Amino acid sequence: MKAYDLVELAARNLRESILRNSLTTLGIAVGVASLVAMLSLGIGLQALASARLGRSGLFDTVVVYSRRDIASFEPGERHDTPTTTDNRELDIAARREMEKIPEVVEVYPELRFQTEVRYGDTSRFTMVAGLPLSAKQNEIFDEMQGKFFSAPEADEAILQADFAKSLDPNPTKLIGQELTLRYAERQALDSQPPNSKKSDPQQAASDWGFSVVRREKKLRIVGIAENEPFGGWRSFARGRVFIPTAVAEKLNVVQANTMRNALRTSPTAQTYSSLMVRVAAPSQVQAVQDAIKKIGFTTWSILDATRNLRRFFVILDLFLGIFGSLALAVASLGIVNTLVMAILERRREIGIMKALGASDGDVKRLFFAEAGTMGFLGGLAGVTLGWAIGRVINFGTTLYLQRQSLPPEDVWSVPWWLVGGAIGFSILVSLVSGLYPAARAARLDPVQALRYE
Length: 453
Fold this sequence. Notes:
The protein contains 14 helices and eleven strands. By secondary structure, it is α+β, with helices and mostly antiparallel strands. The strands form two sheets. A six-stranded mixed β-barrel has the order 3-4-9-6-8-7. A four-stranded antiparallel beta sheet has the order 2-10-1-11. Strand 3 (112-119) and strand 4 form a beta hairpin. The radius of gyration is 35 Å and the shape is elongated. The chain starts with a helix and ends with a helix.
């Protein structure tokens, strides 16, 4: 039987029982719609989470520690007590080496320190944190009052909104004004330690110790941000006052690790508690982590923490797909019923076809064509219905978020691969459902079929 004749016969048979076939196709459409709606919801939520976290700058950054401080974040490699020898210091040389790693965009230190902030007659103790210019891309600064830092070494500050209100009930007035940071600066001692020999190069004055000197730094307030950048996930971003990282480095502030490092190496040597390594793309984070580990440091990234999150979305999509497929499974029973009834109604027709030379394979292909056509049409209608359900979900979510004074979000997404996959799955289910009716029709004895009725 020619393909044209096969299609023509299938189309004619579907038109003759249009009501029953339409209801069967509608059942397929409802099944596909439920599948598309559920999977698109899972895909949309995952895309929303990835977009939010991606813009936050969390996925393209590797945090680096000395193995003297943290041996490893891997449970199998973690030790109770980090070793104090044979591990590299996290110093300027290490920083320069990391900058040369392919796909590394920038390397900057984590700088946070406690300080006294003075504005007019008001004085507050708070935490100051350094931010690189690349932090401007963070969504927190999109709707901030004022502007971001004008240059890497600009004597400027951005205040967190709640802290700004503690300085002035009307924080907008602070923009353009000056505040003073009073901090503790570390300075090298000029005198040698007791009982030291001047001829001993290991006891040079500059290598012995340091003193703490109170200093003041005037900064101009250029912006006020509602929240902490990066969601406060990064330790260096947890602060109430933010200044450029280059400015924070020049202050040479006494930090929490200063005394600890004084016991290990030269007290005046510049070392870091941790370094932030920004990578060109999130897909390159793992490769950069491996390269940093090879040169002797411990690394951590948000990818380490989101393994369970990715597993959660995979399981969520799986369960949503299973529940969405249940309606399609019910629809497949409708296909079986429709085609079995068609066999009973068309026994004489099948007998005549076989008497005229149609083979068992031709009869099977005819019923497969009818089942596949219903699956295709049901898949198209189901995808359209699922898309409409998703639009309604998005519309309702937007209204709810607006009532909560929150920005609208897209919690639903239908990518093209889901459209094609849903239609293909619908056709596949329909063809599988047509296996039994097609085999039953092919086994009909033409003599018995012609005697029917």
